[in-house]
Structures are given as structure tokens and as C-alpha cells.
Specification:
Shape: globular
Order of helices and strands: HHHHHH
Radius of gyration: 14 Å
Number of domains: 1
Largest sheet: none
Distance between the termini: 29 Å
Number of helices: 6
Number of strands: 0
Low-confidence stretches: none
Strand content: under 5%
Structural class: mainly alpha
């Protein structure tokens, strides 16, 4: 029951369609909205951080701009993991 309520709330706030849009490519406006949503939903935040890792690899985003950095969270690449280890982690 609780999980169903969470999913309805996510759908109401349009979080997952936003994440799907970002999966197609980086969009500054959508990314800002996604960072705001990530403050309230840890699962959404984890998915957003995976996209951030991809965008950093593509040179679209700098580490200091990421949600994880703003929250003070450490990610696999910030701990010095190899690319192979990071891919296994994500």
C-alpha cells in the first residue's frame, strides 16, 4: 500500500517522465527540475546520479554541478574507482 502511494505521488509530480526526458539527452531546464525532485525521493536521486555520471563522462556536466556533490555524497568515481569497478557499481 505504501509503495503504491509513493508511485502515485511520483506520477502526480511528473518525476519519472522528467527522468525519461533526461535519458534522451542533457537539458538544463529539465535537469534543474530533476535536482529539486531528487531532494524528496532517494530512488529518483539515485537514477539522476547515474545520468550525471554519464554526462560527466561526455563532458556535459562538471562534478561540482552534480546533485551528489551538492548533497555531499560520494559516488564511485569520486572515490577513485576504476571505470570497470564503477560500471559494475552502477
Amino acid at each position: 500500500m505504501r509503495e503504491r502511494i509513493k508511485m502515485q505521488d511520483r506520477n502526480f509530480r511528473r518525476e519519472w517522465p522528467l527522468l525519461n526526458e533526461l535519458g534522451k539527452g542533457y537539458n538544463d531546464g529539465a535537469y534543474k527540475l530533476a535536482k529539486e525532485a531528487a531532494f524528496e525521493d532517494i530512488t529518483f536521486a539515485e537514477e539522476l546520479m547515474k545520468l550525471e555520471e554519464r554526462w560527466m563522462g561526455e563532458g556535459v556536466l562538471r562534478r561540482e554541478e552534480t546533485f551528489a556533490t551538492q548533497m555531499g555524497w560520494r559516488t564511485p568515481t569520486s572515490r577513485g574507482m576504476s571505470r570497470y569497478e564503477r560500471d559494475r557499481y552502477l
